[in-house]
Amino acid sequence: MGKIKIIGTGLSGLVGSRLVELLKDKYEFVDFSLNTGVDILDLAALSKKFAQNKEAIVVLHLAAFTDTTAAWQERGDKNGLCYRLNVLGTKNIADLCRKYHQYLIYVSTDFVFSGQKEGVYTEEDAHAPIEWYGQTKSWAEKEVFNSGLPAAVVRIAFPFRAKFDPKKDAVRKIIEGLENKNLYPMFADQTITPTFIDDIAWGLDYFFENKQRGIYHLVGSTSLSPYQMAKMIAQVFGFNQKLVKRGSLAQYQKSQSKDIRPWHKNLALSNKKAVSLGIKMHSFKKALLKLRQQP
Ligand SMILES: NC(=O)c1ccc[n+]([C@@H]2O[C@H](COP(=O)([O-])OP(=O)(O)OC[C@H]3O[C@@H](n4cnc5c(N)ncnc54)[C@H](OP(=O)(O)O)[C@@H]3O)[C@@H](O)[C@H]2O)c1
């Protein structure tokens, strides 16, 4: 039997390209990205591509405008690329999935939340974005649900992997700072939930196989401050702990001009719902130990 074909948008990106590396023996991925000549905003060209691949019954939609700082510069602008790519691009994908009776997995973000909650965010919590990227991703989630499609919204957070030259993630930025002995002070008064991309890939495999519907947080099993992250990275990778300096998000925000993107104070997310399906999401420490072994 041949491999199952999956349409993926944005498979050349940070998350998508690792997914393909890990799962390419199991699935035949068709990548709709700009560098494969497919613009999800060009509905006529996109429709043709869907028609050519209509035997694919699963569509994984990763392509997005992901630069949160650049997104903030476009805030309120519905003609801007961030809005068009994240909201209108997602609508195009959902419309075509409906036409070809496909199951859609939309990859979203912890930034749909405000970060003001005391405690851990679950899938039950309401959207309350505080900046433009999160706002557009929130609207895109609504496009997916309003489409009536069989669909899943899979939220990920601070994804990291061993290697990807085009883009650094939070973990590799810290490792680089430790190597160069110039790590900037790390916030001790912020909580985030870093996620090993290998876990996201194997977690998505579950969705491909089971066509699971609903909202899921496919995030790591440890929520911690960037300061604690850096300490743990220094420990696992054998750097001097003294290279990690304590910083403060509150202080940083006070010192910046009013024009900077609002930052989230607490993005602790629960992955219990995804884990209850049998999906394995490593603790931050275990993920680092695995990452250290990868070339
Ligand atoms: N990275 C994070 O910290 C993070 C956190 C939470 C959620 N997410 C979500 O996870 C998903 C993947 O993120 P990522 O970091 O892997 O993204 P990324 O590295 O920024 O890659 C973006 C992808 O989108 C494609 N793309 C951009 N414009 C396109 C267009 N007009 N038509 C078709 N494809 C287009 C890019 O293709 P080209 O390479 O060809 O330009 C690339 O493959 C996104 O939906 C993002 O919102 C990311």
UniProtKB/TrEMBL annotation:
Stored Pfam families: RmlD_sub_bind
EC numbers: 1.1.1.133
GO BP annotations, alphabetical order: dTDP-rhamnose biosynthetic process
Domain RmlD-like substrate binding stretches: 5-290
Family under the similarity heading: Belongs to the dTDP-4-dehydrorhamnose reductase family.
Keywords assigned by UniProt, alphabetized: NADP, Oxidoreductase
Role of this protein: Catalyzes the reduction of dTDP-6-deoxy-L-lyxo-4-hexulose to yield dTDP-L-rhamnose.
Single GO MF descriptor: dTDP-4-dehydrorhamnose reductase activity
Entry-linked SUPFAM superfamilies: NAD(P)-binding Rossmann-fold domains (SSF51735)
InterPro entries according to UniProt: dTDP_dehydrorham_reduct (IPR005913), NAD(P)-bd_dom_sf (IPR036291), RmlD-like-bd (IPR029903)
Superkingdom of source: Bacteria
Protein name from the UniProt record: dTDP-4-dehydrorhamnose reductase
Pathway: Carbohydrate biosynthesis; dTDP-L-rhamnose biosynthesis
